[in-house]
């Protein structure tokens, strides 16, 4: 079994990359794919770049060229709601693209037109392993629920209130739901695990800079634990 591991930014993957025993390195679509062994598992790790187009291209390469059997997306995200703080972990149950809007045709906000699903569901077994990994590190707070993605860095209170009301989202980021869509179209089981870097409110970009190191450390801890359990 080969597991594809995607992060949007180099800093989200750099701790993990040090532990990869490299077998092969390839450049495709301006992305570097590292194939090798990580904690006893066959993996392909890749930094896809920010946003839904980059992450979709990357996921399709993992599917078509590397024929991965599972995909895990890790990284940081904005927290939605009062009780969620920087450093906390969110495990996606399902994902929606919050910036997909064909409401003019009567579709629900977030619905991808002419697709037979509204949300993209993470694999139940992978969610369960991710939750067990979280429970094994009791000092980490974790949440499970819907993550929404869009090509927008959210730094606005009204917008997060809308994401909460419209989608019931617990977290927002910029890649997960497009990775999820490509996995759905290729029938690849996947899960998205993120660590909170900010509360997506006014000043989120400042928190983001400050909390990225702790968020990356925490999501890497969970991923390591998960791979050992898979
Ligand atoms: N990733 C981390 N924080 C984010 C935010 N506030 N909006 C979108 N993506 C993010």
Plain-language structure description:
With 230 residues, the protein is an alpha/beta fold. It has a single domain, classed as Nucleoside phosphorylase domain (Rossmann fold), CATH 3.40.50.1580. Helix content is 35%, strand content 31%. It contains 6 helices and 10 strands. The chain has helices spanning 10-17, 52-64, 124-135, 157-167, 176-185, 204-229; strands spanning 2-7, 21-28, 31-38, 41-47, 70-79, 89-97, 120-121, 142-149, 169-173, 190-198. The chain is globular, with a radius of gyration of 16 Å. The N and C termini lie close together (10 Å). The structure holds adenine (ADE). Adenine binds at residues 76-78, 153-155, 172-174, 197-198, 200, 204, 208.
List the helices and strands and how they pair.
Elements: E1 2-7, H1 10-17, E2 21-28, E3 31-38, E4 41-47, H2 52-64, E5 70-79, E6 89-97, E7 120-121, H3 124-135, E8 142-149, H4 157-167, E9 169-173, H5 176-185, E10 190-198, H6 204-229
Parallel strand pairs: 1-4, 1-5, 5-10, 6-8, 8-9
Antiparallel strand pairs: 2-3, 3-4, 5-9, 6-7, 6-10
Bound molecules: adenine.
The site of adenine has 14 residues, from strand 5, strand 9, strand 10 and helix 6.
List keywords for this structure.
230 residues; alpha/beta; Rossmann fold; five-stranded mixed β-barrel; 10 strands; globular; binds adenine
């Amino acid at each position: 079994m080969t597991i594809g591991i995607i992060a949007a930014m180099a800093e989200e993957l750099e701790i993990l990359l040090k532990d990869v025993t490299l077998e092969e390195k390839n450049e495709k679509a301006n992305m570097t794919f590292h194939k090798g062994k990580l904690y006893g598992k066959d993996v392909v790790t890749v930094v896809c770049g920010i946003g839904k187009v980059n992450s979709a291209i990357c996921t399709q390469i993992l599917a078509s060229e590397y024929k991965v059997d599972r995909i895990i997306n890790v990284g940081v995200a904005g927290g939605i709601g009062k009780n969620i703080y920087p450093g906390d972990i969110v495990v996606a149950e399902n994902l929606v693209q919050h910036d997909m809007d064909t409401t003019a045709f009567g579709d629900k906000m977030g619905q991808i037109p002419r697709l037979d699903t509204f949300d993209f569901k993470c694999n139940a077994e992978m969610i369960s392993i991710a939750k067990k990994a979280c429970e094994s590190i009791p000092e980490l707070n974790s949440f499970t629920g819907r993550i929404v993605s869009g090509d927008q860095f959210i730094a606005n209170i009204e917008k997060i209130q809308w994401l909460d009301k419209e989608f019931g989202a617990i977290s927002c980021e910029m890649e997960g739901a497009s990775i999820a869509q490509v996995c759905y179209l290729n029938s690849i089981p996947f899960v998205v695990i993120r660590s909170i870097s900010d509360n997506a409110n006014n000043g989120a970009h400042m928190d983001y800079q400050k909390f990225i190191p702790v968020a990356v450390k925490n999501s890497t801890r969970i991923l390591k634990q998960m791979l050992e359990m898979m």
